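Re: that chain you flagged

S.,

Sorry for the slow reply, it's been a week of failed gels. I finally had a moment to sit down with the sequence you sent. For the record, here it is as I used it:
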Amino acid sequence: MARRIGRFLSHQSDRQLPRTYFPFGVTGGTKLSGHEYQGVVLVVLIMCVMEESRLMFLSKISVTVLHQWIRLFELLLGWRYWLKKASIPRLEVEQSQLATQNLMTMFKTTVKRKHGNGSKFPKLHLPCHFSENMIDFGVIANVDSGPPESNHKPNAKAPSQHTQMRAESFEVQTAQRYVENLIIDFAADALQIDTNAVPKSAVVTPDLFRGARFVFEVSEGCEGDTNVVSFEWKSKSISEPYHQQYTDWLTRHVFSKLTPGTRVQGCTEHKRHDQYLFRAHPAYRGHNQWHDWATFDWSASNTEESSEDRVCIPGQIVFFLEVTEEMVGIDVGGEMTIPSTGLFALIESLENPLPHPARRTELVVKGSKCLTTQQEKKRRLDGRSVRASNLFLVPVESIDQPISGIPNLGGRPGDFVFVRPVHTWSDCFSDYIAMCHGGMV
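Prediction finished late last night. Pasting the structure tokens below so you have them in one place:
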């Protein structure tokens, strides 16, 4: 189960996720580095929420105990990313003293460690001094020994490779090579040579398409009254097509309104703000499908709208499609009208946004493409069919941020477990600090 979850999490748009695939399991604790344990905690936290593994746990422990473990795991992950923040308000650092003590107490009462000295070990006491140390020396990153150790490679190991490797002169020659490298770097900076300069004649507009490319070709049907759409890969000889339901949906709502002979291009990748890379491939590198999730902003196009008023709903990206001039103004299933040209994404969306973070849903939360009874009732009141799919053609500019979604093993088809964006995990411990001081319920 842990290996399957790790495989799912390795194909996500949120590239900040820790390593989660451990071929030898997550319970042994052997051959793991210190930075890999956060991935182990995340995998076990997902297992506590996922239906199949959750039922397995409930055969051994009660629901109350399982909830205690879920709360502990999400607080430990939130605490870890809170400690890694580049800046923290001083008042929050001072108030973290009580929250850290409560977290250590929760660890003792939940884990109930009986091996060795039980809970009587130094690492359970040392975190209680984090607050006063941060007040004296600043955030943990100021005294983190990781970056200095990483600098040993370029500053010591690399220069040492250009010595005679003789014991009597090894240190002196390493120092000389290091100084020579510094002089060359200073000289290069002083000359201000741009090695990446591109002649003006070579400057071109950025390519709209990334990854594997394909084309939909609209042709006239045999009877002359219905368009026929063919699909062809262009980038590589990929034999795996997209699911027929997506082509049928596009043909019914978009391609049937185009003139025969029209060619609509698409691709499998898109990069937002040179930061987030989204993939939508039916057989990535000849193996399994890769369809990233993201949250899409369905609010009105008001850039000054506060984040609390925005409506961001997760959607799974099927593929990316170029919208041409001929497609502008087409009514897509009565849900929207194509507003402009550019790159659009065909997505399969949830009905509603994910619930706001709360206890035991701060980091991992369930969601489903299937409609609940209340959602079906609301659709009927709005005059919408309960059988209509949640497929939409939206501009890529509506992508808000990446989110990780994996199938909820043991649940219904269409049920998913979502991992909230990594950059929000530290808010879990910030909320816990406020709760410990009566700032939250």
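What I noticed first: The chain has three domains: 2-143, 148-191, 210-300+307-436.

Talk soon,
D.
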